[in-house]
Write the structure tokens for this entry.
Amino acid sequence: MARKFKKRKELTVKKANTVKQLERETPTDTHYTFQEIDLTNDEIDWSKFELSSCCFLGCDMNPKDQLHLIKNGAQILSKPQSLPYDPFRKKLYSFSELMDGFSVEQDNSVDLNIYEHFSQFRFNPPMEEALWQRIHDYSIDEALRELLQFDEKGMTRLKCVGFMGGHSTQRTDFYYKQTAIAAKLVAEAGYFVVSGGGPGIMEAANLGAYFAGRPLRDLEDALMTLSMAPSYTDAAYHVKALEVIERHPEGGQSLAIPTWFYGHEPSNLFSPNIAKYFSNSIREDTLLAICLYGIVYAPGSAGTTQEVFQEATQNHYGTFNYYSPMIFLGKERYEIQTMIYPLLKQLAWGREYFDMLYLTDEPSEVVDFLRTHPPVKKD
């Protein structure tokens, strides 16, 4: 006879005032995780909790409480002091946090310091470092779930549309502008723009969403400023982006999901929500998994091609419970130079997502196709 396990309710507690509320409710059958809360000044009756089912991540507490918790079976992971990042963080990054310490004369930013630390152990991290990285990436997962708000069937409240394409596409490139315009229109249509968070087409997508609801001339003004440092290798790359933000503050919402694995590529500055990961494989899979309302592919090289077929595979099998549109912004690239689009149409023949593939050169047609082809739930 199979053994039956009782499913325990799990809750992550991130606010100190909630702890006092939980104490009054005397919960005994719930697994609680207390994440990065300062408990040093709170007098909490821990006898109200089943401590063997409690975990404390990066919480500050007085030694007496800590000893009591450990003796009664609680799991405690203290915040390491030597790391340039916080593995227990409770929210996504902002560009201002990552850029803290940056100046025109010298880049001493938080972002660069974390990358240089990560680079020491990139291929062979010691066990402790690998553990902190995994906990950090899980914390980013949690913050991302909080932002997107998944329902029980895997759909997000925010209607995520991803943009992918070449990381080395210059700010002066035709498809950089086309992507920015398409992303602006997509955001204005009520979708939530998501990119890989780096330079090139990724930056163009977040830039377009940043200017959602503003006149097109404002976006064109920004493109003119950015064209003065067209490549992410230019010394003034971040400087020109900061000039745009200073001239046009309070931009629209979007999401960027970069990685320190490609830390030599700077994170773009046009998204207020940055889910930055150490693990590139988790980052790439997450990016594709959350964009259930569709993905737009501008021209790119091997990395973009890989992402095309990753998404095609997810669509082919309905991996994430929905079939989603795939839109190719670049007829020459995807129909003539590479034949990727005809190949996908052949692969999708007879499948649910066959009619969800689309090829165009027009940003306005991207929005039209998204509107008429919402995600389809897998039977």
Remarks:
- The chain has 14 helices and 13 strands.
- The longest helix spans residues 127-148.
